[in-house]
Structure formats: structure tokens, C-alpha cells
# Entry
Amino acid sequence: MSRTPEEWGRLLGSTLAKMNACESRKAPLSTDSYRVIAETIACVMAEARAEGYEHAMMALEEKAGVPRILHA
# Structure
């Protein structure tokens, strides 16, 4: 089951808050922090693309009159 946009937002917000609490207030975020943020966003985008593809295929099947097949 995929996460909702709200769940991804809370996850990213929580991650940023925890990293901010660990980092010095005067120094910018570390390279590792940027890596974690980038990987989280990449995961969100990959999941959104997969979900969008699945919805598009289901819409095409429905339009073509193809009987619904159980999607995992």
C-alpha cells in the first residue's frame, strides 16, 4: 500500500525537524542531510509515478471495456 501525500509530507517534515535539531543552528545542513532529503524525495516521486501509471492503465482499460483484473 502506498503512502498518501499527507503521510509523505509528515515523514519529510519529521525528518527535516530531527535533522535540524541535530545540526548546529549556525552551520548549514550537512552533505549527509541533503542526501537523506534527496533520497526521500526520489522515493516519493518514484511511488507517485508508479501510482499514476497504474491509474492511467486502469482508466484506459475501463474506457476500452476491458473487465477489471485484480491489481496487486
Q: What stands out?
A: DSSP finds two helices and no strands in the chain. The chain has one domain: 5-64.
